[in-house]
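TICKET: design request
STATUS: open
ATTACHED STRUCTURE:
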């Protein structure tokens, strides 16, 4: 007996529905995977972009740091040069405006044969003291001598400059307020170096300060209107003062001795002896 079976509509529908569910599940799984892949890709790309950005920022920061270090080094180097220039310039200015000098003090005594007290026979010789201060500047080749008011003689206080660079001697009589200038007599005026040695001997007591007198007889022959060309030291001493040129009396031809009625003396020791400078003026 042959059985003929027919699928009922319900069974067919169930089978089709089951196939649809399986297909839907497969599509859904594929969709989920696709979405997961799609969502994961932007994250990975963002991470890669961030790492690249960090590397770039690191390189930029490194370059900026190197540039800042270079600028700091250049700034420090420039400041070092400026500081060195200020130090050297300050030293030069100090040397120019504050010349090296030393103040020396000394005293010598001399026997004045023209003094009536020394002309008496049997009397002990009377020695007159001469005291002075000397500002000796070897670098400038100059000696500035200050003769104070003497205690036991008839000479005038004075300021004296012996300028070996200019070859001039200037006497400023502090009582009269006048300057008197003449060529430097190197035969009786020691160089600054030798004067330093002389004052050193006087200070140590190694040199006997009893000596003799060398006399100069000078005449003021003409007034000097401008002393600016005689050197800075003589200019500072004699500027805005009446200044006169001195000549030795024995060199003046036809000189009228009777016309001289004003004479005074200045005593100082520019050597191992006393120099008495007698200045006369009409």
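STATUS: resolved
RESOLUTION: sequence designed for all positions
ATTACHED SEQUENCE:
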């Amino acid at each position: 007996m042959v059985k003929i079976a027919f699928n009922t509509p319900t069974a067919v529908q169930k089978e089709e529905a089951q196939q649809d569910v399986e297909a839907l599940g497969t599509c859904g799984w594929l969709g989920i995977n696709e979405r997961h892949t799609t969502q994961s890709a932007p994250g990975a790309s963002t991470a890669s972009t961030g790492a690249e950005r960090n590397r770039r920022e690191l390189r930029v920061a490194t370059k900026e740091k190197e540039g800042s270090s270079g600028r700091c080094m250049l700034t420090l180097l420039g400041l070092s040069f400026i500081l060195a220039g200020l130090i050297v310039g300050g030293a030069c200015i100090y040397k120019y405006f504050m010349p090296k000098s030393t103040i020396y003090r000394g005293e010598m005594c001399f026997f004045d044969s023209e003094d009536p007290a020394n002309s008496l026979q049997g009397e002990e010789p009377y020695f007159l003291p001469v005291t002075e201060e000397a500002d000796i500047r070897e670098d400038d080749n100059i000696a500035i001598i200050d003769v104070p008011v003497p205690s036991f003689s008839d000479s005038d206080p004075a300021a004296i400059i012996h300028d070996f660079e200019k070859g001039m001697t200037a006497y400023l009589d502090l009582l009269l307020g006048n300057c008197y200038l003449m060529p430097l007599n190197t035969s009786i005026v020691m160089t600054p170096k030798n004067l330093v040695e002389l004052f050193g001997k006087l200070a140590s007591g190694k040199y006997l300060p009893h000596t003799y007198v060398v006399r100069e007889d000078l005449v003021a022959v003409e007034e000097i209107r401008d002393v600016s060309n005689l050197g800075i030291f003589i200019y500072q001493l004699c500027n805005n003062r009446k200044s006169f040129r001195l000549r030795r009396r024995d060199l003046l031809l036809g000189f009228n001795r009777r016309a001289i009625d004003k004479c005074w003396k200045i005593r100082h020791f520019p050597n191992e002896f006393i120099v008495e400078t007698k200045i006369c003026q009409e």
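CLOSING REMARK: DSSP finds three helices and eleven strands in the chain. The chain has a mean pLDDT of 76.
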